[in-house]
Design brief:
Blueprint: E1 12-17, E2 20-25, H1 36-47, E3 55-60, H2 79-97, E4 103-107, E5 110-112, H3 114-120, E6 124-128, E7 132-134, H4 148-156, H5 158-167, E8 171-172, H6 173-179, E9 184-186, H7 191-203, H8 207-222, H9 225-240, H10 243-253
Parallel strand pairs: 2-3, 3-4, 4-6, 5-7, 6-9
Antiparallel strand pairs: 1-2, 7-8
Length: 265
Amino acid sequence: MSDREPTLPSSLRLEQRGDVAVVTLSRPEKRNALNDATVQGLGRLFTTPPSWARAVVLAAAGDHFSAGLDLSDLTELDAVAGMHHSRMWHEAFARIESGTLPVVAVLKGAVVGGGLELATATHIRVAEDSAFFALPEGTRGLFVGGGASVRVPRLIGAHRMADMMLTGRVLSADEGASMGLVDYRVADGAGLDKALALADRIAANSAVTNYAVLQALPRIAASSPDTGLLLESLMSAVAQSSPEAKERMGAFLSGRAAKVAADEQ
């Protein structure tokens, strides 16, 4: 991480809330449509996040998370340029998904096309009542290009994504939650507070454990069982050997740490 904050476009705002970085999409007049400057700004931010941040909340100004790709960025692209444009999105969103900081997204209004691709690159998603999900590329003569064909099927299955693209189906917040797109459901206006509470809890974890969850867990899940179990053993040994882990285990064994109990969702 860097002590210097990266230069961000006007479509992104960065705010410090303790150990949590709040990154806000700020093109409400465009329903937070993602143009190249915004996507590249996200890539820079998550490549060199501020040194004080231990978790991130990704929020949005206005009534919508993101209505997707700003189609004006595509009108003049030929096939080769279009491929490179898609790969630019892939690289930027990979910086979020496979970066060093856990990211909690606050979803409201339109979470459509590229907006859904961005949301699925985050690690935990909180949806307000107003949130709705769609992949309208199929009805516009397009195909997804920001990672949806990889990330969305992992959450809801390829058959459900095919339905969304072939028919233009729009999922409500409740449908998104039941299918696995959403981790937490809250009332309109309550998303940011819930996301901040989750991010504060995440930021209080051991940095080694958070890193293991972001970096090792996806690779273990994608590997064969034997390889996954070996990787788990190696990561477990690294985590438990850290001074912070030893202090936390000591606190638990001495009764100084809180025990697991039922918690409000």
